[in-house]
Design goal:
Shape: globular
Distance between the termini: 39 Å
Mean pLDDT: 97
Number of strands: 8
Largest sheet: 8 strands, parallel
Low-confidence stretches: none
Radius of gyration: 18 Å
Order of helices and strands: EHEHEHEHEHHEHEHEHHHH
Strand content: 5-15%
Amino acid sequence: MRNLDKYKGVIPAFYACYDSEGNISPEGVKALTRYFVEKGVKGVYVNGSSGECIYQSVEDKKIILENVMKAAEGKLTVIAHVACNNTKDSMELASHAESLGVDAIAAIPPIYFRLPEHAIAEYWNDISSAAPNTDFVIYNIPQLAGVALTMNLFSEMRKNPRVIGVKNSSMPVQDIQMFKAEAGEDYVIFNGPDEQFISGRVIGAEGAIGGTYGAMPELFLKMDEYVRANELEKAREIQYAVDAIIYKMCSAHGNMYAVIKAILKINENLELGGVRKPLPSLVDADMAIVEEAAEMIRDAKEKYLG
């Protein structure tokens, strides 16, 4: 049995941090990392969807991860998403991540061309081979990647001893149960969709990685605490409040991550910039939504955390 405890808990997906010119802000990255350390989360998932990964260069991703590792000072589990849409760049990022001492690397399947499963397995195993001493997490997000992790592909990937689990962001909660039943206790399954945090945890996910956790980590930590204590009615009440906040954040003209960064500026005094084009930026009319969502978070924390 492997020791997977460092992955079991609330792991926010890390946001891309930009300066006033839209370049990566090392100071913003370090400030956000310290914020997560102070909030007491289990770890961070760096350069994934919430980090606008498909709009970042290889060098951008290296700068982000280097500054996360500097600021984390070993106090967070760090999972680095290293997938690019070609194997060479992905392997370069995997090797770089291992050189920095991350806990795990992760990767979505290649997007655009619909590759056969044997080619996806080869892609993931090539990436893993570039970080031979580092755990590997499969990232299953079929609604965006265009291809789903099947049981056959999962079985093939488990032949790689570095594979330790799945970040499951498919919408059916049943998928978590199926992956868990198939893999057993020697693997960790992460819940992906934030709106079903407690559902995923109850059905078998030992950890959770999500893009809205960063805006309100205390609420997800409290839900996790209630799930562990089997106080599911209390957990469900917070889940409903969190979902209402997420729906509000998604109602803006601008991208949800632009909304979240604006909320963090209001509620936490964090300067993280906007989002990178072609993601849509906030417009003036969005500020009312930002203010309302920020207030909803403050009210929920006051209500549920005392």
